[in-house]
Amino acid sequence: MIAPRVRTRGLVLRKIPYGESSWILSLFTYHLGKLKVLVKGAKRPKSRFVSTFETFHVVEVVVGVKETREIQHVYEARTLVTLPELRTSYAKQVWASRLVRAIELLVPERAQSRGLYSLTERSLFLMVKEGHEESVFLAFVLKALRTLGYPPTLDRCVVCGRRVPRHLSPRRGGAVCSACGEHEPVLIYLPEPGIRTLQTLYGSSLGVATQVPDPGLLEPVLRYAEWVTGIDGLTERVLGPSPPPAAPAG
Amino acid sequence: MWVPSSVDRLIRALKKLPGIGTRTAERLVFFLLRNPSIIQELAQSLDQAAKELRFCSICHGITDTDPCPICQDPGRATGVLAVVERPQDVFLFEKLGIFRGRYHVLGGVLSPVDGIGPDQLFLRDLPERVQREQIQEVILALNPTVEGDATAQYIHDLLKDSGVKVTRIARGLPAGSDISLTDVTTLKEALLGRSEWE
Lengths: 250, 198
Ligand SMILES: [Zn+2]
Ligand SMILES: [Zn+2]
Hints:
heterodimer; A: CATH 2.40.50.140; de novo design (two linked rop proteins); 7 helices; disordered C terminus; B: alpha/beta; Helicase, Ruva Protein, domain 3; five-stranded mixed sheet; about 10% strand; elongated; binds zinc ion
């Protein structure tokens, strides 16, 4: 049976060398979610796909989708968006990589989520073009949690409804105040004005994140995401190697 | 199916090599069984390689003496250092026969997606090497990929204060391609047409 062909837009998450000259690509796509495709001979300078699939490129692909196959075939491809800023800044690449790893860990293979795809693409562009990487990334994580079915309550204590929560409780699914937090088995402390910054990032449109100074809350928020989603090692795996202190951002 | 255990072991060992599946491994083993002299030759060279092959402590290339012959050769102290990604890139450039300086093998490129940061590469010793060996020009011969380009930029920034001239091989190579799969002419032109960092 001939596999149905699907034209879709996607982000190149990762390139895995295959044989001497081919790549297996991990893509996150609008219509098909995450999937793996084989691009034969793409490392060869004369391949028609040689410059198409680079990490963090947004591409349009026509993929033959066979349910029984783990790796799909690409019929057509073209690059839609390149992010030249990533070529000149390792620090920016570190942030883009965090986003990629978050997607790899949070999204199950071939689970379609158009909302999450759009959020990912917009977050990547904002980070790369506008800076404020941590704020954008935090907004991305919080909004992704909502899309994945773990919407965090941040504007009041989940338990008593008071408006001065200081902690995140994974068991309660959001913010709790100090008094209510005493009975929680896992409690993640957020320094002031941490919770208010998170409220802003979660409640506003993504673009607002580029006006919010980086609040230094990445670790606690990822820790929270790790608890609610039950994904082991999410925090460490998303953070990965840290940006270098010596080299300035390009 | 019964096979002698030494044959089975050999098949298993061969299958660990890239690009070799069960069928190819079996074919190779049966070929070897018909040609015992090749078995001898292979066994000896593998044994020797296992004992003698190591990484040069200066350039991090593959060698059987440390430092490697290139790092030891005073004739190669031309003040020009080519920074390459993998040890096999050194052989590639040696094959071209037009480069007479020394090498610095990074052992990869910066690729945070794969967990490869500056500490996972031979980057930290580069500025010191440039000083010690009085290098006047560092040629960055890295693949023109997103990762290769960001690594080149990182090295450029790393060497900014050392006063050394940093050049890149020319962009005859399409973005995304791989140096080792480039034809010799294109690579030669790329090396000759290298340009200073803007
Ligand atoms: Zn409360
Ligand atoms: Zn050496």
